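Quick bug: Porphobilinogen deaminase output formatted oddly.
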Amino acid sequence: MQSPKPFARIGTRGSPLALAQARLVRQRLTQAHGLAESDIEIEVFSTGGDRSQAENTTLSDIGGKGVFTKEIDEALLAGRIDIGVHSSKDVATGLPQDMVLAAFLEREDVRDAFISVSVKDIDSLPEGARFGTSSIRRAAQARRLRPDLRIVPFRGNVHTRLQKLLDGVADATLLALAGLKRLDEAHRATAILDPDQFMPAPAQGAIGIAIRAGDDRLAEIVAPLDHAPTHQAIAAERTMLAVLDGSCRTPVGALTHWDGEMLVLKGEILSLDGQTSFRAEVRGTDPQALGDKVGRDLLAQAGPDWLAQWTA
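Here's what came back:
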């Protein structure tokens, strides 16, 4: 006898963090709709980003934003899955025409964590220490404070990078605190960084839920999971990123917070060596207008040639 069709099929990457996030979405869906866990299937996909983990590559080398979502997006649009679960910072600003980010779980801590087995913070690193990261934003922010640091490419999932520190591949690294918390590894953080000094990536810390555009059934299914303040904050940050033509090739940071009914968006762009940076801050109630204004303000400060000069 044929098995009954699942209530919904979730697509995700196979890393421990991605699976933890997909299981969290499944848990929220079962709670919202009174379902059993078995009613919602999780299908694992290997993405281009997962298959390209060579140490001497950065995300910009293998395609930038979208490299961790492409195969899941294709399965969603083909109808093989119903929901794509993503780390929102990995999602390109230019979505496929028939796909929407319909919901966001409440955002986790947006800050980056400093991790080292030998020192307590970035200021305590010895001269010329090896700083492990494949994020050009984190590399630029670290170089802004410590131009002497040697940047060591640092690919792999969270546990792989933590093990590399123990193996002595680098003296320190930065990881998103949100990911550490979701993996119950927050105790590994040696220091939590000031988000105004180490501005997070746009949409960092938010789990995004993608569905097919115009699919009313799926929209109703995921609607109870949507956290409106997070949704609006991410909309502002992604709009800013789109205006900047931001990708994993450009050092861009974003930070939002609520001040009463007003959403406040800060944005930053940096040179690759971190020695030049520009910032803008705007407050308002329309997330898209906010993101557009911050992005345009940053472009006006940096000048028309900034992308060509400051791209990896």
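Actually, after a second look the formatting is fine. The chain has ten helices and 13 strands. Closing.
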